[in-house]
Amino acid sequence: MRRYLVPLLILAACGGDPTTPPATPPGTLPGQTAIPISGLAVPGMQAYDRTITDLMRRHAIPGGAVAVLRDGKLLYARGFGYADVEAGTPVQPDALFRIASVSKPITAVAVMKLVEEGRLGLDDRVAPFIAHLTPAPGATVDPRWEQITIRHLLTHTGGWDRNKPHGGFDPIDRPAVAAAAVNAPAPASGETLVRYMKGMPLDFTPGERFVYSNFGYIVLGRVIERVSGMPYRDFVRARVLGPVGASRTQQGRSRLRDALPEEVRYYMPWQPGLGMTAMSPSVFPGEGVVPFNYGGFHLEAGDASGAWVSSTIDLLRFLSGVDGRPERPDILSAGLVAEMTGSGPTVCTSGACYWSSGWLVRPSQGGATWSHGGTLPGTTAMLVRTHHGFSLVGLFNARSPTADLEGELYGALWNALSGVTAFPTHDLFATFR
């Protein structure tokens, strides 16, 4: 759910340098009918084909992927549109996408693993784990830092309000300022952001209220490193992703030249006659002007809050390993799954949902639905565990500048499910590595 302010300088076609955009990129303009679909066509589940392509046309989304799991079986996995518009490369069902804040449930599960191993407690104070990350010389540390617990960070009640009128901000949007404040290399790393924020006052007393916070999860990444003695990335891959078989999920990189094999390209909203890439100053010193979605922000600094790259297949493997259902073994005990999703601050005006440790939870008579969305410049993602035996995931390589595309994707995944006329008995997991 991270949102960046985009300092637009020019708009151009996608690529490392500004070029003349194609007049009509296939599959990217509203009303365009030719959206290729890859993967097995599943009789009875055509509602997904229709619903997703309709959503993509409505918002000029170049490419996406969607998958559906039921009772531990992968029933549906298809790619839509283009992974690379200029090359005309279709999205494959298991293509890799930045998943933005869908990274947070992964971090939450990593924390729960440490709790299960007796190495961390949810009500442990955070300050001792990050005492080595010192603020700028002469900075005054808000004494309320001593009150922040692991649970506060997991449930977005740690004390930071990026939406506060007159001065609210997300430190990840200040990579140069944060680095300069503590005399660290630019762009600021996660550790540097923690040092910088230690010199800033909290916006409210920890536990007092809910405000969604990327920074709180960046702090959790540092706690995981301190407790485990491993880099955040390595601990998560070894203790969370590896055991559930999500071996292709990796940390993403900011620059296009560092993209992973089979990773899609990311696009800004299509502007007729202008193109699909906003340009901005690079966060990397000396690199000049770059496509905003490839160096206009520092993806690596948000390692634990929004920097994982994954596929729909891997995300369903992950979810089926922590969903509390019997079909596939969980990597957490039943008690910790219940702890992870059982309570948290109420966030819906109706009181019908709350924010647990890494999940938005909607209780219902038949159980509970968990979900988490994510957005970055060039990315929209949604992961859902329904109350009645399904798991759903959708990933796009663009986002809308005006609409709540996360919310619309959530609705589309549910609406398509209600339009399914027959479910297959096959399990497609074995067809994907």
The assembly state of the depicted protein chains is: single chain
Sheet having the most strands: 9 strands, antiparallel
Average residue pLDDT: 91
Helix content: 25-40%
Helix and strand string, N-terminal first?
A: EEHEEEEHHHHHHEEEHEHHEEEEEH
> Taking Cα atoms only, what radius of gyration do you get, to the nearest Å?
21 Å
Give the low-pLDDT segments: 1-31
Structural class: alpha+beta
C-alpha termini separation: 29 Å
The best one-word shape is: globular
Question: In what range is the share of β-strand residues?
Answer: 15-25%
- Using DSSP, what is the number of strands? 15
Count of alpha and pi helical runs: 11
Structural description of this entry:
The chain has 433 residues and is an alpha+beta fold. It is built from 11 helices and 15 strands. Strands 2, 3, 4, 5, 11, 12, 13, 14 and 15 form a 9-stranded antiparallel beta sheet that branches. A hairpin with a 7-residue loop joins strand 8 (277-281) and strand 9 (289-291). The chain is globular. It starts with 10 loop residues before the first strand and ends in a 15-residue tail after the last helix. The model is unreliable at 1-31 (pLDDT under 50).
Strand-helix topology:
Elements lengths: L10 E2 L24 E2 L7 H14 L3 E8 L2 E12 L4 E2 L6 E2 L4 H14 L33 H5 L20 H7 L8 H9 L15 H15 L3 H13 L5 E2 L25 E5 L7 E3 L11 H4 L1 E3 L1 H9 L13 H8 L12 E2 L4 E5 L2 E10 L2 E7 L4 E7 L8 H14 L15
Antiparallel strand pairs: 1-8, 2-4, 3-4, 3-15, 4-5, 6-10, 7-10, 8-9, 11-12, 12-13, 13-14, 14-15
